Amino acid sequence: MAHKGLLLVLSGPSGVGKGTVKNAIVKNKVFPFEYSVSMTTRKPRPGEVDGKDYFFVSEQRFQEAINQGELLEYNEYVGHHYGTPVGPVKKMLAEGKDVLIETDVNGARTVREKMPDGVFIFLTPPDLHTLHLRLEHRGTESEDVIMGRIREARKEILVMQDYDYAVVNDTVANAVDHIKAIVDAEHVSVKRVIDDYRKMVEEE
Ligand SMILES: Nc1nc2c(ncn2[C@@H]2O[C@H](COP(=O)(O)OP(=O)(O)O)[C@@H](O)[C@H]2O)c(=O)[nH]1
Ligand SMILES: Nc1ncnc2c1ncn2[C@@H]1O[C@H](COP(=O)(O)OP(=O)(O)O)[C@@H](O)[C@H]1O
């Protein structure tokens, strides 16, 4: 039975561990998925690769992408723009692949309006103190920027009722297990497979 891939939308406060958990799923081959690379106007961090972590673009190029309708959604987050290129997402889903996109909470709301079949997962820290420590430990932002991101985290957690699932990233292994369970369950949810079964009966 072939159907469209799942659109997995992953959000969560800066520093919660979205990248770490995603990389663990890939490294341990927990389940196959395609990662949709976002576009951003923020500068690359040391070690980040253009076209792999993000498409790092100028503000002018980002505005052009908006005007040309290249983005499924976009948002401004603490002084920079971030957006999801729509073309690759639609193509990969049509090919039956599961696609993971990362967005902040505002972006997720837009995706929900445009693609309501998505599976919306919010990754949370065990508590805000741990989140602060993780951001400090990562060491990629100044204390000022970290404070801005923690302020944003408080707001994001208050609107997480828009998501389907909340996964606590206490340990990476636990978070990966929970996400795997969600993906497995979504693959067999009746609303996704009903058309296949109807066809099976009608073609008999
Ligand atoms: N709307 C939107 N947000 C995104 C996208 N890609 C990443 N983000 C969010 O932008 C915020 C900042 O991302 P980033 O600067 O990479 O910081 P990090 O989350 O700490 O790694 C986070 O909330 C990300 O989830 C995107 O394509 N669209
Ligand atoms: N479960 C965890 N336990 C402890 N540290 C973690 C965990 N998950 C992520 N980290 C660490 O927290 C920091 C932020 O993780 P990262 O994946 O960059 O977050 P995000 O992509 O959500 O901003 C990194 O230094 C990472 O090694």
Automatic annotation (TrEMBL):
Known catalytic reactions: GMP + ATP = GDP + ADP
Q: Which InterPro entries match?
A: GK/Ca_channel_bsu (IPR008145), Guanylate_kin-like_dom (IPR008144), Guanylate_kinase (IPR017665), Guanylate_kinase_CS (IPR020590), P-loop_NTPase (IPR027417)
- GO CC entries: cytosol
- Main subcellular location of this protein, as a coarse class: cytoplasm
Q: What class of enzyme is it?
A: transferase
All copies of domain Guanylate kinase-like, residue ranges: 5-184
For ATP, which residues are the binding ones?
A: 12-19
Q: Which GO terms describe its molecular function?
A: ATP binding; GMP kinase activity
Show which residues constitute the signal peptide: none
Keyword terms of this UniProt record = ATP-binding, Cytoplasm, Kinase, Nucleotide-binding, Transferase
Q: Which Pfam families match?
A: Guanylate_kin
| Keyword ATP-binding in record | yes
Tell where it localizes.
Cytoplasm
Tell me the protein family, please: Belongs to the guanylate kinase family.
What does this protein do, in the record's words? Answer: Essential for recycling GMP and indirectly, cGMP.
Which NCBIfam families does this entry report, sorted A to Z? Answer: guanyl_kin
**Name this polypeptide is given:** Guanylate kinase
* Gene name as annotated: gmk
